[in-house]
Amino acid sequence: MPWRLLKFGLQSEHNEPRFFPESKPLKSHYDVVIIGGGGHGMACAYYLAKEHGITNVAVLEQGYIGGGNTGRNTTIVRSNYLTPEGVKFYDTSVKLFEDLADDFDLNIFYSTRGHFTLAHTDSALRTMRWRAEVNKHQGIDSEVVGREEIAKEVPYMDLDCNGHAPVMGALYHAPGSVARHDAVAWGYARGAYNRGVEIHQKTRVTAIRTQGDKVVGVDTDRGQISCNKVISMVAGSTPRITEMLGIRTPIEIFPLQACVSEPVKPFMDTIVVSGSLHVYVSQSSRGELVMGASVDPSVLHSTRSSFDFVEGLADQMLDLFPFMSRMKVMRQWAGMSDITPDFAPIMGKTPIDGFYLDAGWGTWGFKATPVSGKTMAWTVANDKTHELIEPFRLSRFADFDLVGEKGAASVGH
Amino acid sequence: MKLLDCPDIGKRPISEFDYLGEIRIPPSDADEATWADYVFNRDNAPGVLRERWYHRPTGRWFILERNTLTDEVVGLVDPADVRYKEPNYEVPA
Amino acid sequence: MKYRLDPQPLEWIDRRESVSFRFEGQSFSGFRGDSLSSALLASGQKLLGRSFKYHRPRGVLSMANHDVNALFQSDEATNIRGDVTPVSEGLDLRACNVNGSLANDKDSYIGLLSRFLPVGFYYKAFHKPKKYFPFWEKIIREKAGLGEINTDWTATRQPKQYGFCDVLVIGAGASGMSAALTAADAGADVVLVDENPHIGGSLDYQLANVEEAAGVRADLKTRVRSHANIRLLEGHYAAGWYTDHYVPLVGADGIVKMRAEQVIMATGVMEQPSVFRNNDLPGVMLASAAQRLITRYAVKPGQRAVVLTGNDEGYRAALDLLEAGIEVAAVVDLEWLDKRGPWAEQVKAKNIPILEQSAIYEAKGKDALTGVVVGEFDGRGCDSGLTRKFACDLLLMSVGWAPASQMLYQSGCKLGYDKKAHQILPRALSNGLHACGRLNGAFTLEQRLADGERAAKDAMAQLKGEAINMDLTLHRDSAAHSHDWPIIRHPKGKNFLDIDEDLQLKDLINAAKEGFDNIELMKRFSTNGMGPSQGKHSNMNGIRVLAEITGKSIDETGSTTARPMFHPVPVSAMAGRRFRPERLTPMHQWHLDNGVQLMEAGQWMRPEYYLPVSEAGASDAAGAGQIDQRQQAILQEVQAVRSGLGLIDVSTLGKIEVMGPDAARLLDVVYTMKMSTIKIGMTRYALAVDDSGVIIDDGIVGRIAEDRFYVTATTSHAAAAFRTLSLKIQELGLNVRLANLTGSMAAMNLAGPASRKLLSGLTDVDLSEANFPYLGMREGTLCGYPVRLIRVGFVGELGYEIHLSAAGAMEVWETLMREGQSAGIRPFGVEAQRILRLEKGHIIVGQDTDGLTNPFEANMSWAVPLKSKPWFTGKPSLALLKARCQRKLIGFRLPQGFTGELPKECHLIIENGEIAGRITSIAYSPSLGRTIGLAMVDLPLADEATELKVRVDGGAMVSIEPCPTPFYDADGARQTADLTEVA
Q1: N or C: which end of chain C has fewer CB within 10 A?
Q2: Which of B39, B41, B69 sits opposite A301 (nearest CB)?
Q3: Residues C98, C8 within the same domain
Q4: What phi and psi, each to the nearest 5 degrees, are found at residue C845?
């Protein structure tokens, strides 16, 4: 038994310190205001305080910590992207994830499982090879594997897909992992709070005040704040924030749905994604199968669920895993994905001085949590775009200089 | 499954429709920035949006005003109201 | 079946039919109509399962599909809910999540360690040092999960039905039946659904012995069953509410997807447990569970009972126990007796001890309940120390209700806490939604009937489009039926708040202490409500606890969001029948008869290549010794086209006729090149880009008449091409009509030097070079069928695309194959075509281009008339991109006789250690006798390099030599020249 557990047993009282502060009034001024208390916002606050000594920071969250896409995603972490800039960025994230539990002294259940992206067509297989080659070039462990190798790792999968679009091969990414999403946000929040950052839940930003092209403050439903630096890290709510400043972006909001099965004894150790069948699945440490598909087909600023989603998912899933027909889906939910035309994020400075954007996270925001927090903190502290996120600048669209991540997207979790 | 009102044959399940997104009209005499804004940027805040939908079985395009926060359809838009003529775009020398 | 009672008037079991089954290796029997749990209880088996975390003994809690501690598994199924799954002959069941056997669970020691495992313990341990986490994780994973699955199970899929109705009433209890009848009487088409196998709801188990209810029950049931406007669906549960009143009703045989105009929720309430030490022992159950056992299954839940109550219903339950011959040792009331009604007086009249202002402080027993400690209750706890003990094997909890309001939340309705009723009640309902009965706070039978009627009238008015002034409070009870704090702290804990997840009261308190003092955060940290019952018996108490800790009201505390599903839904039912549409060309059967290897292209099945009899002469040149049969067949097909004749089925191409005065204008907008200047009878290459200038499709446009064009598109883009053309017609208000001929027309490409000669004998079209030049398009007949012939050059030989109605296609195909024999005709497939076009340097959109490739990068600036054409889709983007071109598609070749590791498509070009491009196409060219390909290469390298390095499998670097394209017949003589010149 780990000594921590012994310690719990020997205490007569539950004397664990608070993760997050109790609710208290807003101050009139902060050096930096972060809008959005999800993983990204908390990570940014954490690195601002830890690495740049900036602690007069308020994180404003309209709901509760980690209640947006942080708590709604399917927790997959990987770096097998298509473009060198994407690979570099996500690889930095994976490395940060690997040390996060130590860094926080909090178990985020970071669990390396291996990640198969199945190819059912020639062209999918070509894309897999492209990704594998780019990955290997950057020192990332990815390779195209054949049916035999897949069968060895996932023997219970029907590679023939019941006779339609059989699996031809896969991109195998050994570092593919899952983590406990909430714990990532909580760990960052606790670390930020312990270093002096204020976290205000149930605090909704209603306006961002500017003078000329400079940020001077933020209005909230709990009062006004003056500040010169505001970072928006609100994923699906990004259009509401950018609208306040008249900043136009290519982001569109599409619901992304997911579901879990009833818990069963763990049998699935790997993460399996099929772009052609639009499904992905892993098994959580609670024994639930965590499953998802691609984003909904039309814009919607809502987290409603649809039955078509689970029906389609169930139908496609049985092509790969016939035995799942005897399992049951327990719960479904949705998040709001902020999708960009080139399936890459939008990060860094904006036309408004002092307003920084971290958005366009689509379906891949969770895996970028540490690196986005770190690079955005650096960018804000230095008022200079961090080199890792330079390709993701908002102005790339005006320059027709898009990121070529489209090939890896479809269902890229 | 959500229902959409196809102007030709009435309410049909949304899976029969394709979604194009908000109505966009190519600007005439656009400078680079205006053109890039047209190509990439969107009126993306929640609210009532005019959007093009396509009903696959009938091959019918139509335009709906829809509230993207509540998913309620507000009304049908006459395509003539948003018609445009091909811009004459001279390539700058 | 020693615990079976004499026949009960409303029982569900059929005593004529006995059913045998096995559980944990022992034989049991029950009656048809029994649930697994009731049959086991009837035989005295009270221990039904072990808890998730501590492996504590557990029994019946609700008998209402919430008993997730009575989960069984068999060789055929897992996570079987004992409380609601019917017994069937020959079942062989085991308990889920036990280590060893249910009776001797080797993991039951974990309960002893519970003090070492406080709330969220796993976040605070096992991660240091990092390298040991996989070790701990393995142990944790072994303990995780409930039932086992068998990965050898085959897929079962249940067909689905679609249903439609005016009014859907969910729940066939008193209020639901009343609502259904009211709406049906008013002429509505009503569907009444209930998750139980029989209608009646609590009318049948809670009011089973109430004389006044008997007449009402009989009347309601008879009318509901016989009403012409009511369709009754028993044994189906509503899985969730979805947009536009779409409610999947899940039954044993599959799902009925019901679309309603109005939905009346008569879903009732879910009885809530009291929280006290050892409240999870087998023998401790909800009062309604005991009533269900008695009335539905005639099962005696115990011999000697104590009833804990905070409402009138507890006294009703006590009377029901007495009626069933069960001794009632005491009724323990959380409040004073004077708050209670006539049922309490009846209990009192029977001299049953009633302990007022008291609560259960602790239940006693090891594997089952043996007694309770009753303490004086001050409204918050039993800390005075004044206790009394009672021996008993049954303890009923009747302390309150939580609404089955999950679907109301899903539909956006507003609910709030009623401080008088101590229950969450609906406040404002969304359009088309209604709530009645206990869900809405109507508790007496009269109230429930009246409330059902009211809801139905509201629904009928809305159905007719009338405005209504909905008053949900009309028939609500003034008395509370829930207690606001049925939660008793105990220094030794084990007072479970969520028995799915083994959460004790202190776990929630400690979670809040650590800052998780928001209802959602508390849920996520403690896992309250995350188990298979999804908080049905833990969410309400969780809210009460958090409100108490934070000093906030219940409304301020809020509730977690109720997501679908209401009960878990089998994947087999959701998947439905497997439907994978497949499109076949008119010549499909011929392909099958002639050795075709098919490939999927979207929904289409296309010939990839054919494996016919070998042709010795042709195979030598390709070096057949080293290459497999597939490769050999493909190369032979290539050679047939180059040297004689080939025929490929291209029926999958998009084929669209564009007609009307604005037809040319439309095509000028959609395609980069000018289509308005095509001469009648001629065709032109058609390249389409999107607004951002990225290549999305290519094909050809041919002019049939001044106002009539014929357009082809790639197979994968066919539907999109038609859609885009339709869209532009609407956007610009053009006078154009489209005919999508993709499915009704077949097409084949007859290619090779002998093509003209073969055709000339079969068609009335003048094929002479002068009258039918390259890129020409002619109409005429072929084998008697009207055809459209197009001189195309994709494969780089003299060739004719033959388009005709699907009806005649097979005959034409067979005739060509027959008549072409002397010229060595071969059918060729997609693979050969890929090589043929590669030899000509033609791109395949989507292979040689990616999601960002523009025409300049693809070396197609000739197809982008920026100067001469005032507008086409994407023009301004291309004008910008022209100067910013950063990469370029180039041709390359490998040395003749190259024997090393061959590069593959998407292998990278490396220059100075950096990625400088990738191979997009590569193949062995039989015509050139060497391997050729296309590569997308960074500029200026693409223009300057004389040698490029490709990293191949295994990491070796292979040199490729850039070269101009086309690789084959660079001046195009073979596709334009007269037959005699190239023969």
Answers
A1: C
A2: B69
A3: yes
A4: -65, 130
How far is the alpha carbon of A410 from chain C, nearest alpha carbon, in Å?
Answer: 12
Mean pLDDT of C591-598: 96
Assess whether pLDDT exceeds 50 at residue A69: yes
In a mutational test of the B interface, the residue from C730, C866, C869 whose CB has the highest number of chain B CBs within 10 Å is: C730
Which tokens belong to C369?
A: 């309940």
Q: Does C246 sit within 8 Å of B2, measured CB to CB?
A: yes
Residues 9-48 in B contacting A (C-alpha not used; CB under 8 Å): 14-15, 18-19, 21-22, 32-33, 36-37, 39-42, 44-46
Cβ–Cβ contact C140 with B under 8 A:
no
Residue C613: pLDDT band with limits 50, 70, 90:
low
Give C235's contacts (C-beta < 8 A, 6+ positions apart). Answer: C194, C195, C196, C197, C251, C252
Nearest-CA distance B18 → chain A (Å): 8
What would be the CATH architecture of the domain defined by B3-82? 2-Layer Sandwich (3.30)
Q: Is B78 on the interface with C (CB under 8 A)?
A: no
Which residues neighbour C411 within 8 Å (Cβ) at sequence distance 6 or greater? C241, C263, C430, C433
Domain finish residue from C739, C767, C786: C739
Which chains does B contact via 3+ CB–CB distances below 8 A? A, C
How many other C-beta atoms lie within 10 A of the C-beta of residue A211? 9
| Token digits of residue C478 | 């003034």
C783-789 long-range contacts (CB < 8 A, ≥24 apart) are C783/C808, C783/C811, C783/C812, C783/C815, C784/C808, C785/C811, C785/C812, C787/C763, C787/C812, C788/C702, C788/C710, C789/C759, C789/C763, C789/C765
- Whether C489 and C428 map to the same domain: the answer is no
Domain A24-73+182-250+342-408 bears CATH identifier 3.10.129.10:
no
Residue A351: partners with Cβ closer than 8 Å, 6 or more residues away: A213, A247
Q: What is residue C265's predicted lDDT score, i.e. its pLDDT?
A: 98
Q: Is A161 left (phi over 0), alpha (psi -120 to 50) or beta?
A: left
Retrieve residue C693's tokens.
């200038």
Task: Report CB contact under 8 Å: B68, A301.
Answer: yes
Which amino acid, C845? V
pLDDT, tens digit (0-9, with 9 covering 90-100), for C457-490: 999 999 999 999 999 999 999 999 999 999 999 9
| Domain extents in chain B | 3-82
| In contact, C487 and C273? CB cutoff 8 Å | no
With an 8 Å Cβ cutoff, is B78 touching chain A? no
List all residues of chain A from 81 to 140 with a beta carbon under 8 Å from chain C: 84, 98-99, 101-102, 105-111, 121-123, 126-127, 129-130, 133-134, 137
User: Structurally, how many domains does chain C consist of?
Assistant: 7
pLDDT in tens, C125-182: 899 888 889 999 998 888 899 999 999 999 999 999 999 999 999 999 999 999 999 9
Identify from B42, B48, B72, B73 which residue to disrupt to test chain A contact, counting A C-beta atoms within 10 A and taking the largest count: B42
Q: How far does C382 lie from chain B, in Å, by closest CA? A: 48
**Residue C474 placed within a domain:** no
Compute the CA torsion angle C518, C521, C525, C527 (nearest 10 deg): 100
8 A C-beta contact, residue A208 and residue A355: yes
The matching CATH number, chosen from 3.40.50.150, 1.10.760.10, 3.30.9.10, 3.90.79.10, for A113-175+252-338 is 3.30.9.10
Å from A253 to nearest chain B CA?
7
> How far off is chain B from C869, nearest CA to CA, in Å?
9
**How far is the C-alpha of C953 from the C-alpha of C779, rounded, in Å?**
51
Residue of B nearest to C248 (CA): B1
CA dihedral C844, C850, C852, C855 (to 10 degrees): -20
Q: Which residue of B has its CA nearest to A242?
A: B45
